[in-house]
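Can't paste images in this forum, so I'm doing it all in text. The chain is below; anyone willing to post the predicted structure tokens underneath?
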Amino acid sequence: MPVWSILPLLLFTAWLPGWLLLQNWPGLRRTGWLSRHFAALTLGVLAVGWLALLWVQIGRFSLLTVGLSWLLLCLGAGGAAWLRPRSHTVLPAKPQPSPWFTFLPAWWQYVALGLWLLVVLWLFFRPHEYVLGGADAGVYMSIGAQIARDGGLIIQDPVLASLYPTLQEAFLRPLQNPVADHYLMPAFYVVGDVPGEVIPQFYPLHAVWLALAYSLSSSAVAGAQAALLLSGLWALLAGLAVYLLVRQMFGWETAVLALYGLSFNALQIWFARYPTTETLTQFLLWAGLWAVASWLGNQPSRRFWALLAGLALGQIFLVRIDMLFILPFPFLLGLWLWAEGHTDTADYFYFFLPLTGMVAHSLLHGLSLSQPYFFDLFGFALRLFTVYWWLPLGAGLAGLLFLLLLHRYRGQVGYLVRWQRPLLGGLIVILVLLALHGWFIRPYVGEIPVWADPYSTNLIPQPNQENLLRLGWYLSPLGVWLGLAGIGLLLWRLERRTALAVAIGLFFILFYLWNVRANPHQIYVMRRFVPAAIPLIVVGTAVLFNHITRLNSPARWLGPLLALLWLGGLLWSAQGFISQVDHKGLLPQLAALDRQLDPGSVLIFNDQAAVGQGDFLGTPLQFIFGHHSLSLRFPEAADPAQLDETITNWQNNGLTVYWIGDPAWLIAQNHSLRSQAFTIESRALEGSYFHKPTAVLPAVWQLDIHKIEQAVPES
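Text version of the structure:
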């Protein structure tokens, strides 16, 4: 099937069960058609992705198993809707807030959406071909391909299992990890309890969706190309989620402006083409926040919206392990609502049960299938709590006491509203002071610290002082300051429907402006801002323009002028990022290399670099193209007789063995070789620490490939 047709198929596959499930909530007919269909699509994405993940976790993922689950889901949802008593009453949709330009007819929003769709189809669906190992993007692609091929997350590598323990010390790199002592390649842990068992890094839901797209294709190249398109799809859906949230709160013109601002900034464009978790996280987060606003805004079928919000926000924790930091915010919102007494108690169960269920699922996954990754991030805290056991116990008792006091004085919580304005005003003043400090003072004082790269001996600079200025590289300085002013306005007008979005977005803005780990590719560092921070800054800017244009003075015309300058600044800052597609044509070159090799062969990269050819190229050659890749990292640890015997054993078992790199060792062992050279050429945006990346640099890999001829036994 053509690569481009995978996305409509996935969309329909997700929408259909979601639409059938929606028929069990007849009150939703009062919502607009776009909201209904987007809710159906979101619910279907949540259901299909979770079912596919369950099959992966038990090692039985395939199109057949996922397809049967999908069919049963559709039949069950459709059957329940068919048995429900029918009502033919057509209910009017709830009117939206009045727009800021009352002379524009409402149908213009669909013209604006159509133009946006045409533009983002060109912007988002020209993916970077990041399938190289040694970096998160290529690792995700390899994990997705591996799941599609083997049906599970844990990898059983028979070639690795066949190595002598002493040879494993030559081919595996030591790793500082509480569970895994070595890795085969970066992000592929080797624990050692089971010979040949490899545990990939990261949480799995994003890779599961990559596996679904990969499985629907006819070849490794087509599968990888289809999987690369998913980031653009999630970015598109995330934009619609932000649009629907803002439209519900502030009107469609404000929503269109927020949609354009989000979609046309450099970071959104770049990560819509980059196969990491940023855009999937952004979609789930803002779809969940839209559902929260619909629930708390008393939209028809409140319990449906509470359920959708809990599922969407909960699934984020199956995508990214670091999103556990946002977990307190939904529960603080729940306490606020409960203390005010404005919400039906049953709504809480529809929201919190799926949310806590998904969080529990993510923790169980981390403790069972992703132990090296889980304990690498949370092991220190767990060990700390084991020694200082009174810390969690004290926190739990304090929380319980707080809940008891809240219950005791629940009816008097409303009196605290009188302090809302002073508290919010004080918070806004603090944010203004922090912004002034971050822009005008912090970048110019103190030395730049460094941190040690865990995969090499390099020291990487950590220029956190400039984080706010660097945000201006991609949003323009005007965009940063307008966004901060808009967030201040959202804070001043804080309400239940916007509280969660503002709290989560502001937390990530402050956290990552304070500290974000550097990387040789500066644009990659900015990925942390994409899921929550960038959308909130853009939404705040659009709301600020909305506020200005509603002023009862000639100053209202400043709103449209600033909006045009803002959009122009975003597009100006996106120069180069719009046109550049990294590693374009890399997949066909890797496919050409694959055709030069015998199927399922063993590739030994004679490469001692911290992250070298065996990692960059060996990772996709193993997990996407089906070979077995090893890097000879410590030649001094390899016993020549054992290595020679192992190569012979592989050949006797029908495996072709290739040596890639300097063949001096093979020559010394009197091996007969058939040699060839292969060159892979590509282009990618420059790596930088201290300036906005602009240059596009060539990337060239020269491969000296030596096929080790099998010795003919003497007669």
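Residues 136-223+585-708 form one domain. The longest strand covers residues 673-685.
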